[in-house]
């Protein structure tokens, strides 16, 4: 299985297409056992969908009420799916009236192929059959709507679309609040990954509001999970674009500043620097500037140095964002650990914020061993109480770690 760290490797991310496709074609296909497992799960899903008489009855009533064929009803449901995330009933009603009245779905909702991408899924889940959407609806959505309006009337089509949204909402929207969603999920015996239905933040106020909503949802889900965890229990899908109003490739530096749990940027520099210099003055920290081609690109530190027990912590690390993931960090850590062990250290320690998966992966990639989780260990600059993961490398492990680091650094030469 490919690791997340490997996916972030530029040599893999920008691999030649022909080379990548050739490798995939040559890769070992699914084993007979895996194919059997996939088939069994697929059969089970189809049978479950077909046995859902309640859903089938809802759709049959919908088709009869509006005098729609199965294929016409399916097309309307796919069109209505795009309106499911409208923020409120009034906006939804006005949008339905505008788009149906002007027969201009295509310009608002994009290409027809994207509209009907879930058509087969909807047909199976709601009718228990493999039903294709109406041919004209797929090839000419405005023409399909005009014909439907001429046959049954615009007010009826508008009500049909509104009801189709309601059917889909009943299927996928478990509740207006996380509490009601959890209650319904428990009643129906479902395990869910909750989507908060929030769009990307446009302002800092939006981001703050979404952060509070996510925090409340995570707390509610955590309390209700009874220790099951997100794999065996409920989870929450978090959109980073909802937590940063400029979550865009062209604003990478701002994203790191606003989402990263540790900041040296802007107004945070002076107090963070003051704390660092205090630790340097009292002898608990030794700081190093990280230089590349004569320019300072970051810093890293020895801290909490315990000569009696032969333990030192390496941390307080910050690099310019465009240099993360390359040779700078392993090179700096190679020098620091080499110096520590040469001076008689028995153990080098790394402490990482538990939610900082990138840094945790980077420390593991150095060759460190994950040892423990310290719960509610400290308060971050944002006021969040963080859990801390402890990693270490022992002097007996250092020769092997050093050789692997040297080999890794040689690939950057």
Q: What structural category arises from helix and sheet content?
A: alpha/beta
- Give the overall shape: elongated
**How many separate helices?**
21
Question: How much of the polypeptide forms β-strand, as a percent range?
Answer: 15-25%
Report the C-alpha radius of gyration, rounded: 28 Å
Helical content, roughly? Answer: 40-55%
**Major sheet:** 6 strands, mixed
Termini distance?
Answer: 28 Å
Number of strands: 8
- Roughly what is the average pLDDT, rounded to an integer? 76
Given as residue ranges, the uncertain stretches (5+ residues, pLDDT < 50) are 102-117
Main β-sheet, spatial strand arrangement = 3-4-5-6-8-7
* Sequence of secondary-structure elements: HHHHHHHHHHHHHHEHHEHHEEEHEHEEH
Task: Explain what the structure shows.
The longest helix has 22 residues, at 204-225. Helix 6 (70-81) crosses helix 13 (154-172) and helix 19 runs antiparallel to helix 21. The radius of gyration is 28 Å and the shape is elongated. With 413 residues, it is α/β, with parallel strands linked by helices. Strand 4 and strand 5 form a beta hairpin. The strands form two sheets. Strands 3-4-5-6-8-7 form a six-stranded mixed sheet, sandwiched between helices. A two-stranded parallel ribbon has the order 1-2. Mean pLDDT is 76; it is low at 102-117. The chain contains 21 helices and eight strands. The two termini are 28 Å apart.
How would you summarize what this structure contains?
By secondary structure, this protein is an alpha/beta fold. It is built from 21 helices and 8 strands.
